[in-house]
C-alpha cells in the first residue's frame, strides 16, 4: 500500500475489508480546487482484504466520503454532486444526485440513514465557469489559487476574492442570504436517501468548509479542514 496518494477516506466493510478512497490520481489533495477546475474524473476506490489490494472502481469524480452499507460502500462523489453505492464487483447505483453542494464526509444515523457534510455550496458563477474551458485555463495560469473561481472552504479574508454582486455589503452589512463563496452545510438523509433536514452556517458565518459531521455521545459534532 506504499505510495498511495490523495487518500480522502477509509472505511471497513462487514467482512473486515478496508476500503480506500483516492480523490485523484492526477492531483495531490492540496490541489483539489485544480482537480475541480480541470473537471477530472481521476478518483478511484480500492479494497484491501486477505493481504491483497484491488481496484473496485475508477474514473470517479473525487470520492471524499465512505460509509459501509449492505455489503457495499456508499461513496460521496464530490465533483458529480451525488451519492452512489458501489459493491465489491464495482457496480454503481445512484442514491442521491444534484445535491446543492459538494459532498464530503459521511456518517451513519441510528435509523439507517446518513449525515452528509457538503464542504462548499454550488453557485451559478461556478456553473458558468465550468462551461468555459479557455477561461479556466487562463485563470489557473495567471491568478493565484486562493482567488480562483472555485469551491472554497472559507472566504471573506481578502478583497481580492471573487464574488457575485449579491454578496456586496450594503451599509456595512452582509445579508445572510447573500451568494457566498463558502458556507457550512450538513444534511441528514433517511434510509431511502431522502433529505430530512439540514444545518447551515450561512454567508459571513464562522463554521464554513465542513468536511465531516455526525452524532456521538449525545452531541452533534461537525468539523473541517481549512487547507485550500
Low-confidence stretches: none
Provide the residue-averaged pLDDT.
89
Global outline = globular
Number of strands: 14
CATH architecture, please? 6 Propeller
Helix content: 10-25%
Note down, in words, how this protein is organized.
With 228 residues, this protein is mainly β. It has a single domain, classed as TolB, C-terminal domain (Neuraminidase, 6 Propeller). The chain is built from three helices and 14 strands. The strands form four sheets. A four-stranded antiparallel β-sheet has the order 1-2-3-4, with no helix packed on it. The radius of gyration is 18 Å and the shape is globular.
Quick summary:
The protein is mainly β and 228 residues long.
Which short descriptors sum up this protein?
about 230 residues; four-stranded antiparallel sheet; 6-blade_b-propeller_TolB-like; single chain; 14 strands; mainly beta; Neuraminidase
Write the SSE topology.
Blueprint: E1 7-12, E2 18-22, H1 32-37, E3 43-49, E4 52-60, E5 63-69, E6 72-77, E7 82-86, E8 92-96, E9 101-108, E10 114-121, H2 124-130, H3 133-142, E11 184-189, E12 195-201, E13 210-216, E14 219-224
Antiparallel strand pairs: 1-2, 2-3, 3-4, 5-6, 6-7, 7-8, 9-10, 10-11, 11-12, 13-14
